[in-house]
Amino acid sequence: MFKVFLFRDTEQGSVIETIRRPHITVDGDGKLQFSSVEVHDGRPNLVYECAAASPVLHGEYRSGDHVQLQVTPREGL
Questions:
Q1: Which of 23, 47, 48, 64 is the most buried (most CB within 10 A)?
Q2: Distance, CA of 22 to CA of 65 (rounded, Å)
């Protein structure tokens, strides 16, 4: 079994994609890590979702925890 994090669009439930952003990684414990945060990361319709897949699931995955960020830009930057 392997664990990944995905983006899910809450307005378009069927839109799911693998996270491929250089400032977002998954650490050795399977936790999502951000080296920096961009305004784009906190879109209101964006959810970060943990997923697990296994050969037994035949290409399917099981959804787990999800996180939604709220990003407030700092003034003057």
A1: 48
A2: 22
CA 17, distance to chain mean position in Å, is 9
Listed in order, strand segments (DSSP E) in 11-75 are 16-18, 24-26, 32-34, 46-53, 61-67
Q: What is the mean pLDDT of residues 26-49?
A: 89
pLDDT at residue 53 in the model? 74
Per-domain residue ranges for the chain? 2-67
Close Cβ partners of 74 (under 8 Å, ≥ 6 residues apart): none
Q: How far from 5 is each of 50, 73, 74, 77, CA to CA, in Å?
A: 4, 24, 27, 29
Q: What is the mean pLDDT of the chain?
A: 82
Cα atoms in the 13 Å half-sphere on the side-chain side of 56: 4
**Tokens 């897949």 found at:** 53
